[in-house]
Write a structure and sequence with these properties.
heterotrimer; A alpha/beta (373); B alpha/beta (247); C alpha/beta (371); A: 373 residues; alpha/beta; abc type-2 transporter like fold; 2 domains; four-stranded mixed beta sheet; 5 strands; B: alpha/beta; Rossmann fold; six-stranded mixed beta sheet; 36% helix; globular; binds adenosine-5'-diphosphate; binds magnesium ion
């Protein structure tokens, strides 16, 4: 125990003495948290919109006014031919072109219906779907007023309706930031923990001090504990600061218990740090260690369900994410904070994390060799 | 010579096909200053790492302080001090902090760390700079400190891997004084160097060439038997047999 | 002449350095390929397999028909029939379910008699995006049911919109994400490679050797970037090949232009890495900046997943300093829209200016150290 204490003291001295590193550990993550949490939103607003009104009648004008006045679209120009419309899309001057064909009004008044074309930039299929939804809303509303005035409309005909009363629990306003902050926080804590622990032992190898340690009677578990604990403490400290920012700067709700969050975080940090130390003991240089840590970090981040839903992945990829600790911690953080899940409801991911922690620590202790062969 | 504290027989270490240490056999007695000489790449560090329990030998036998280097490395570690070839203290810690750390992990009591720290810093004239980082100190001072730290837990044997490499002659002299002081207290000193003049300071030297021990004796006896007057000459003879004879 | 040959010697040394460490070289060229393959398949945002619970308290023809219609749409998977709000609550909390549809008792009679009925749709709003989309899906399934079952009176249809989804008619998210992944991966790998180039020399003490050599600072900086530039070429080619052959992302514009723009982009990224290397004092710091400092900003601010146009204005401004943002616009425009240089010269210019500024700044930092 005393031995671990001395190791701890030394690690902390070294961490806090590394002036270049301090801002990266203690400031950079929070700047990122504050700034980037605002970036993650799928809201589609102020869609640049181009009008191609070939009819130029009062009715076509009324329709285009519905678009410009809807608040969804922002008129950025007009075009008069299809090639022009295409150029506008290619040049990113509009994401939607509304084409009202010649004879629009006449057809409506004669036959009761007329087509308009909506050319949507579908590079981003998701946004394109949303844009199409907006245009549907506008045209449906427009039709509601228009149809009774059209020939052949059976005024007063009974219409069946089903009203969908929808409610979104936990986040009725659908604030995206509440969803992103816990996840981004997890990634930042992981990043710092994995990189610091991943570089630690291999750095001692590079400068040669590791031999000096290995020649002492220190036990392997003492060494790993002494290396792990400082970053464990720092990791939980960062998490705390992040939770404070979430609470007071972003007003992210906290429906569950902080104790549960810290219990999970304590286990989670063991997984991350165990993995970092494992990388560190298996590599020869800091550069190698960083490349490997980076490789996993990118995979963990993108496959965590933080940005895109796990359910959208193919099944084999979904199965792969079960081995991704970031996925589980992001999931748990969101559930506990936003939905107030208790320990029983997070039992499965928590059990996986616990098993991961055991595995990583065992591997790290075992792969660390005091005697090389 | 009393009971040997280091004893090897046919000790060998291969890296793949390459044999870095080739069947070396020797004994070192208690309180002896044993020099390990050889050019860069001769296999000195590799041999020392096997003896300190840092590297597993490929074949052969060896015991240090009575413990086997294959199976009892952890027991060996309780009895030895080591100064690795690369600088072995933490550059970003102060002298005091380094002493405290290494004392601590060797299990010294806080009181004894305190006491030794004070004694050591004053005997090395390091008190004025005891609280600045080692990176700010000259190499010679750092090496003397590293040596003292290696002796902190009062080991029976101390292994020094090129402790005087890159150090000025004045400091080297002083360093050897420290080695003698330790030997006088009964500590066995196993030291590697590629400075041939330092061989003269050792009780016995072994000269390694390409992983093998080419000669092993007291410096005087060795020079006599080869009919040379300096260790330098002797060394050239050993590395390039026939070089000095044709004249 | 002598200067030139010592420069060439320097470049060769750098090459040698990269390849001597096999493991590192394997990582540098294997990683982008593995990552693009993995993410290309896994990063999608089509909503599928929504876990739905249906509480049918009326159990009549209407509720049955709507239930069938919801479940046969292919988007939803029935996971349970919750009996109470608390059951819904706990299913949401354990992540076992994301939506619940509740039919009030006697919906059949209600719609026959009053011409209207209510259906409750409760979603797990903790993921606002999914929540919004699945609510919309459910509503549209119900609307479809209604329009099919309604005793069709011949109403005039009014304005009928005909949507035309340009560039990506199938609304596949692959087309969106693969170019984004290209930008992300090239950015990170390239910056990472050069980020420790100068710092490592400083730490290992070989910097002194460089400084006393006859090489000029600019030669040292350029000599560090050139080998990585040539090597990154391999990454660019492998990534483009995978994008097109494996993921079938079309390249409607000029392949040559795409190639040239990609090379410009890796040049920007390499210069950024170089710049980081000149402002840091240790490998650790350099790597932390190039990894920790670039990962999330590049993912979040480049428009890779979240559209830049959706962000608050200050972030849209900040996003302009992210090189990947510009490359992403370029790649999507060339590959999906077939855009030519005439459309993209501004974005290209931005990348070029960034590169020049970064190299200039690295040079200045580096030269300052000499004094
Ligand atoms: N881990 C290793 N793997 C492969 N070869 C090694 C390793 N360590 C040392 N060697 C080789 O063994 C030889 C002896 O090295 P070393 O013992 O360090 O020599 P010395 O200390 O006498 O300068 C050298 O040729 C060196 O390259
Ligand atoms: Mg050596």
């Amino acid at each position: 125990m005393r031995v671990i204490g001395f190791l701890l003291q030394k690690e902390f001295l070294q961490i806090f003495r590394n002036k270049g590193m301090l801002p990266i550990i203690f400031i950079m993550p929070f700047i990122q948290l504050v700034i980037l949490s605002n970036a993650a939103t799928f809201d589609v607003r102020n869609v640049p919109f181009n009008l191609q009104d070939l009819d130029r009648t009062s009715l076509s004008e009324r329709l285009s006014e519905q678009f410009t006045g809807s608040g969804y679209f922002q008129l950025t120009g007009e075009s008069s031919t299809s090639p022009q419309a295409l150029d506008v899309l290619v040049g990113r001057n509009a994401d939607l072109v509304l084409v009202i064909p010649e004879g629009f009004e006449k057809e409506l008044m004669r036959g009761g219906s007329a087509q308009v074309q909506l050319i949507i930039n579908a590079e981003d299929g998701f946004s394109a779907g949303v844009i199409q939804g907006y245009t549907n809303d506008i045209i449906t509303a427009f039709n509601r007023d228009l149809i009774p005035q059209l020939p052949g409309s059976a005024v007063g005909a009974p219409r069946q309706t089903i009203s969908v009363r929808s409610s979104a629990w936990y986040n009725p306003e659908l604030v995206y930031i509440d969803y992103m902050v816990p996840g981004i926080l997890v990634v930042l804590v992981t990043l710092v923990g994995l990189f610091l622990s991943g570089m630690n032992v291999v750095r001692e190898k590079e400068i040669g001090t590791i031999d000096q340690i290995n020649v002492t009677p220190m036990k392997r578990y003492q060494f790993i504990t002494g290396k792990l604990l400082p970053f464990w403490i720092i990791g939980l400290g960062e998490l705390t600061l992040g939770l404070i920012i979430a609470r007071f700067a972003f007003h992210v709700p906290m429906l569950g218990s902080y104790w549960l969050i810290y219990l999970v975080a304590g286990i989670y940090m063991l997984v991350v740090l165990g993995m970092g130390l494992l990388i560190s003991t298996l590599t020869e240089s800091q550069q190698q260690a960083m490349f490997i840590a980076w490789f996993f970090m990118v995979i963990f981040t993108l496959m965590s369900g933080l940005f895109t839903a796990i359910e959208s992945m193919p099944h084999w990829a979904q199965n792969m994410t079960m081995a991704n600790p970031v996925r589980h911690f992001v999931d748990i953080m969101r559930r506990v904070m936003l939905k107030g899940s208790g320990i029983r409801e997070i039992a499965t991911p928590l059990a996986i994390l616990t098993a991961d922690a055991g595995l990583m620590l065992t591997l790290a202790v075992n792969r660390y060799r005091k005697v090389s062969d | 010579m009393s009971e040997p504290v280091i004893h090897t027989e046919q000790l060998t270490r291969k890296f793949g096909e390459f044999t870095a240490v080739d069947a070396i056999s020797f004994s070192v007695g208690e309180g002896e200053v044993f020099g390990f000489l050889g050019a860069n790449g001769a296999g000195k560090t590799t041999a020392m790492k096997m003896l300190t329990g840092l590297l597993l030998p490929t074949s052969g036998k060896a015991a240090v302080a009575g413990f086997d280097v294959f199976t009892e490395t952890e027991s060996i570690k309780k009895n030895i001090g080591y100064m690795s070839q690369r600088f072995s203290l933490y550059d970003d810690l102060t002298a005091r902090e380094n002493i405290r750390f290494f004392g601590g992990i060797y299990g010294l009591s806080s009181a004894s760390i305190q006491e030794k720290s004070k004694a050591l810093l004053s005997s090395l004239d390091l008190l004025p700079v005891a609280d600045s980082r080692l990176s700010d100190l000259p190499l010679g001072w750092k090496q003397k400190l590293a040596f003292s730290v290696a002796l902190l837990h009062e080991p029976k044997i101390v292994f020094l891997d090129e402790p005087t490499g890159g150090v000025d002659p004045m400091t080297r002299r002083r360093f050897w004084d420290m080695i003698y002081e330790a030997a006088d207290r009964g500590v066995t000193v196993f030291v590697t160097t590629h400075y041939m003049d330092e061989a003269e300071y050792c009780d016995r030297v072994s000269i390694m060439v390409n992983g093998r021990i080419a000669a092993l004796d007291t410096p005087t006896a060795m020079k006599d038997s080869f009919g040379v007057t300096t260790m330098d000459e002797l060394f050239i003879r050993l590395v390039r047999p026939g070089a000095g004879e044709g004249i | 002449m002598k200067e030139w040959s010592s420069f060439v010697g320097f470049v060769v040394k750098e090459f040698y350095h990269i390849f001597r460490d096999r493991r590192t070289a394997a990582i540098l060229f294997g990683m982008p390929v593995i990552q693009l393959l993995l993410f290309g398949y896994a990063i999608r945002n089509e909503i599928q397999e929504v876990k739905i619970g249906i509480a049918d308290l009326s159990r009549d023809a209407v509720s049955q028909a709507i239930t069938d219609k919801i479940l046969s749409s292919g988007t939803f998977v029935l996971v349970k029939n919750p009996q109470s709000h608390s059951e819904i609550q706990s299913a949401f909390r354990s992540g076992a379910m994301s939506e619940a549809v509740i039919f009030e008792p006697a919906s059949d009679r209600e719609i026959q008699r009053e011409g209207s009925m209510d259906i409750q749709v409760i979603t797990d709003g903790s993921d606002p995006n999914v929540s919004r989309i699945i609510t919309g899906y459910t509503a549209s399934v119900i609307r479809d049911y209604l329009s099919e079952s309604a005793t069709t009176v011949d109403e005039p249809k009014g304005v009928v919109p005909v949507p035309l989804m340009m560039f990506n008619p199938g609304l596949k998210s692959v087309y969106l994400f693969v170019p984004g992944l290209m930008a992300l991966i090239l950015m990170l790998v390239s910056a990472l490679m050069t980020s420790i180039s100068i710092t490592r020399e400083k730490e290992s003490g070989t910097m002194e050797v460089l400084l006393v050599s006859s090489l000029k600072p600019i030669q040292i900086i350029v000599g560090k970037v050139v080998p990585y530039f040539l090597l990154s070429f391999i990454n660019v080619v492998s990534i483009l090949v995978i994008a097109s052959l494996v993921f079938g992302v079309p390249c409607r514009g000029s392949v040559l232009l795409l190639m040239a723009e990609s090379l410009l982009f890796i040049m920007t990224a390499l210069s950024l890495g170089m710049f980081i290397s000149t402002i840091t004092s240790s490998q650790q710091v350099a790597m932390m900046i190039s990894l920790g400092g670039l990962l999330l900003p590049t993912i979040l601010l480049s428009g890779f997943i979240f559209p830049v146009a959706s962000m608050p204005l200050p972030l849209q401004v900040i996003s302009n300093v992210i090189p990947a943002k510009w490359y992403l616009i370029i790649v999507r425009a060339i590959m999906l829209k077939g855009a030519g240089f005439a459309v993209l010269w501004q974005e290209t210019l931005v990348l070029a200016v960034m590169t020049v500024v970064l190299i200039g700044a690295s040079l200045r930092n580096f030269s300052e150290r000499l004094e």
